[in-house]
Amino acid sequence: MGLNKRAFLLVFLLFLSVSLVSAVPLENLVSAAHVQQLRAAARESGNLIVQTHFRNTAPVLMPQNSDLQRIVSTARNTLNPNIIVESLCLYKKPEKYHTSSGSWDNAQRTGVFNQTLALSTLTGIQYYSASRSEMRTFYEFSGVIDGPQTKKPVPDPVYAQPAPLTLHARQTDLTFGDNIYKYEYTVSKDAIIFTQENVTALSVVIPVIGKGNLRSVMAVIDCGDSILIYAVSMVNAVSIPGFRDRISNSFNSRAEAVLKWFSGRLEKEIFK
After folding, report:
1. Residue spans of the chain under pLDDT 70
2. Which of 15, 33, 188, 209 is most buried by a 10 A CB count?
3. DSSP state, residue 266
4. Do 255 and 87 contact (CB within 8 A), yes or no?
5. The whole model's pTM is what?
């Protein structure tokens, strides 16, 4: 076989091997103990694993994904957070949505991406308030805007293909007030990751989280028959007696609310 034919064959085989890459197995993303917990929780309709840290320590639930690890590491180095709340859950795809390649197809991937952009649907979601011992509205209002200065409402964007993206949203939180956030999206073959950063200071009577001192990262990773959803909120909050536990409990409950919201969107809009 001539040199040109050998080169062509090598290129073709490389292309074929790349095109047939399957989804990353769950066992390659998280520890064996967490795999067992996640599969048990998935059978119980969306229960999740939660971990809270009160210093800038390495996350313990974060999946093995290079983009996610880079984004979280950069945020930790920038913020030096004194509160970190992690959550992890597993969404089981209905069997009819399993594909022959083992990975989500383009329609699933694009649909999931567009659901991460549907920020208006966060309006009205609820979480359990430990301080009040009752369910409470999280976002009284949530909507995409054209920018942090003009703040003109615009519809949730819809894309034909996932792509890196930055957008802004106005979100009225019954705990932290009316604020502007920046959302940044990173996409790869098997993962969609977005980061929420506060453009305005968050206040509870007084400012408790300064501008840019909150980063919430959410990763949606395809595992073939399942979708792994990871969320981490990193906060550099003011040190006020009694506020640390209140803020950490709040973010803990809110993380659960957001993961339930997103799992619900998958169930209702993608995997019907």
Report:
1. 1-22, 43-47, 241-242
2. 209
3. I
4. yes
5. 0.89
68 neighbors 230 (Cβ within 8 angstroms)? yes
Architecture of domain 25-270: 2-Layer Sandwich (3.30)
CA 216 – CA 232 distance, rounded (Å) = 6
- What residue type is assigned to position 191 of the chain? A
The pLDDT tens digits for 32-89 are 999 999 988 776 655 689 899 998 999 999 999 999 999 999 999 999 999 999 999 9
User: Cα angle vertex 57, ends 245, 69, to 5°?
Assistant: 120
DSSP state of 153: B
DSSP H helices, 55-173, are 66-79, 106-116
DSSP 8-state symbol, 176: T
Instruction: Show the tokens assigned to 132.
Output: 């009040």
Q: Is 133 exposed, middle or buried (CB count within 10 Å of its CB: 0-12, 13-18, 19+)?
A: exposed
Give the span between the Cα atoms of 268 and 45, in whole angstroms: 15
